[in-house]
Amino acid sequence: MSALEIHNVRKEFGSERVLKDVSISIDSGQFLILVGPSGCGKSTLMNAIAGLEPVTSGNIYIDGEDVTWRTPADRDIAMVFQSYALYPSMTVRQNISFGLEMRKVPKAEREAAVERVADLLQITHLLDRKPAQLSGGQRQRVAMGRALAREPKVYLFDEPLSNLDAKLRVDMRTEIKKLHQRLGTTIVYVTHDQVEAMTLADCIAVMRDGHILQLGSPDEVYNNPVDMFVAGFMGSPSMNFIRATLEDNNSGSYQLRIATPGEAELVLPWPEERNATDMAERLNQPVILGLRPEHFSEEDERLTSQAEGTLLSASVSVVEPTGADILLRLPLGEQEVTARVGPKCTVVAGDRLSLRVDMGRAILFDAETEQRIA
Amino acid sequence: MANVIRRQTPTARLGRGLLYSVLILAALFYILPLVVMLMTSVKPLSEISAGSLLSLPQNPTLAPWTKAWGEACTGMRCEGVGGYFWNSFAIVIPAVLISTTIGALNGYALTKWRFKGSELVFALMLFGCFIPFQVVLLPMAQTLGWLGISSSRAGLILVHVVFGIAFTTLFFRNFYVGIPNELVSAAKLDGAGFFRIFWRILLPVSAPIIVVSVIWQFTQIWNDFLFGVAFSAHNTQPVTVALNNLVNTSTGVREYNVDMAAAMIAALPTLVVYVLAGKYFVRGLTAGSVKG
């Protein structure tokens, strides 16, 4: 039985449709991440799950029970808010036990729950402070503690890390992941940060304009995106989209010709094992070739026998060392692409460089519909 | 300007000196009426008729104060303004408490439990702030008559509550708008209801705006004359009306010292409130605008 099932949920504000037939189902213990740009409806969906906003139509089931028209309190969920929403007049201890108090849990049990949660999150020394006396990271912990104290069926996290500074964000991300692994809780987590989505999720739902574009594991979403939006949204730096024409190479396989006005022609072979059924209809038509920065690698002279990949040569326009690796910007036909190469690479701007392209991982999109072809 | 560091040249010092002189003169000018009132109220009548307005009292006496409090004639009766002073309190305290409570609940509902048309309701309530008192005198008299509480203390309290709600709602609504809705969402998820959220989450952080509302309402209702004179009977008159009657009772010599003492008595509570809580008033009005 799924811990959370969202069935054809629609939400309209007046004539504006914010959620359009959204359906998701996750199992108990799964970590679902709703990701997408601002205004894609992810927070609205979260609020619908929480019961803070009524849906226009559709159903929401938690642990098999239809909770669509239940109040937030009767859904057995807890939520961690972006602003933490700690009660300013209460101490940390009161904040954590408030939900239990409202549910008429006896005092001794409440205290035990506070101790347990404080211990888990290492906030025991903060229990008698007021939220105003806490740092951002500490508030974040208290907010999680408040959710954990009740042991609900589903946890909702609404962009919980977006108010933290970069370093703390990474630390808390790891902490949330550890916590999830340890407690095996069902979590729905909203973020616009694709790195958080990739690192935390069992299952990612990429949303746009009230639709779920793709629902799948981080690996699926990253390596097999359904369209150009998902492909471009996941991954940083994002995927390169290169305009090309699909051609027949006269020996039964396909190739991609990239327009290079005034330069030597640039043709990339399409690996045969990745052929899709409808590619024949698209011969001599424009397509978009999607290549992630890491699909490029610098040519190493010592390994001349490299069979994988296709060589291409381009002059580097910008070199951006990040420390762990180097990002190169290079013109390819009419567009500029980003390539990620090893930190030992010694190119400078203006150099001409041979790069190997891993066409086995390339993705092909329809130039008009932006849907994936192969 | 205060942050600009400048060398203290003689001209700059002269400028400063001039500036302060003007400011001090202006301050003296503004405080003068109060000083004159206070001085006059402790002078015997003979000194007033003989000396000038600004001369210091030669033989200070509290007799005008005791007379104003307990003996001076207000119309037909000669019992001073003391009784009316307590009348005012009996009207002001419940009216302030009720209007502040209702305003707080209104502000809470209008910001945290929005409903279709809640903005319109707020706009209409806001409209109440701009209705001149005179306009409602007759309909209000009718209404009080129907309710059977005309000329009673309860009637006056009702009138002040009705008028006060517009302002208190405005205060609380604008204060609660600045309090994140997520706080209410979190409390809903925790299982708290409408009143519980108000009582446990919102009210404990409302101190600054409660102070503003109480001070505002207190001074407004205490200083009210029009409703007091229109909707009260002899035994329920507030002190402002009594003061008017006292000053306008013309039998024999006009006792300026008693008039001034009575005026001071009538003004004292609002003065005390401002002196004690004035800084909280300013703080409350600007609360939220400073916090980032």
Rg of chain B, rounded, reads 24 Å
- The level of helicity of chain B is over 70%
Count of DSSP E strands of chain B? 0
CATH architecture of the largest domain in chain A: 3-Layer(aba) Sandwich
SSE sequence of chain A, one letter per element: EEEHEEEHHHEHEHEEHHEEEEEEEEEEE
Straight-line N-to-C gap of chain B: 23 Å
User: How many individual helices of chain A?
Assistant: 8
How many independent structural domains of chain B? 2
Largest contact between chains: A-B, 23 and 16 residues
Silhouette of chain B? flat
Query: Order of strands across the biggest sheet of chain A?
Result: 6-7-8-3-9-10
**Helix amount of chain A, in percent?**
10-25%
Number of strands of chain A: 21
Question: Rough shape of chain A?
Answer: elongated
Portion in strands of chain B: under 5%
InterPro entries (chain B): MetI-like, MetI-like_sf
Keywords (chain B): Membrane, Transmembrane, Transmembrane helix, Transport
Organism (chain B): Vreelandella boliviensis LC1
Protein name (chain B): Carbohydrate ABC transporter permease
What labels describe this entry?
heterodimer; A: 374 residues; alpha+beta; Rossmann fold; OB fold (Dihydrolipoamide Acetyltransferase, E2P); 2 domains; 6-stranded mixed β-sheet; 21 strands; B: mainly alpha; disordered C terminus; ATP-binding (chain A)
Structure overview:
The complex is a heterodimer of chains A (374) and B (292). Chain A has 374 residues and is an alpha+beta fold. Chain A has two domains: 2-227, P-loop containing nucleotide triphosphate hydrolases (Rossmann fold, 3-Layer(aba) Sandwich), CATH 3.40.50.300; 240-366, OB fold (Dihydrolipoamide Acetyltransferase, E2P), CATH 2.40.50.140. In chain A, 23% of the residues lie in helices and 33% in strands. In chain A, the strands form five sheets. Chain A has a six-stranded mixed beta sheet with strand order 6-7-8-3-9-10, with helices on both faces. Chain A starts with a strand and ends in an 8-residue tail after the last strand. Chain B is mostly helical and 292 residues long. Chain B has two domains: 10-64, no CATH class; 82-286, MetI-like (MetI-like fold). Chain B is built from 13 helices and no strands. Chain B has helices at 10-41, 45-50, 63-70, 82-112, 118-127, 133-147, 153-177, 181-190, 194-202, 207-223, 226-230, 239-248, 256-286. In chain B, helix 5 (118-127) crosses helix 7, helix 7 (153-177) packs antiparallel against helix 10 (207-223) and helix 12 runs antiparallel to helix 13 (256-286). The longest helix of chain B has 32 residues, at 10-41. Classes of the chains: A alpha+beta (374), B mainly alpha (292). Chain A binds chain B through residues 47, 50, 52, 71-73, 77-79, 81-83, 85, 87-90, 98-99, 102-103, 146, 150, and chain B through 180, 182-183, 185-192, 196, 200-201, 204-205.
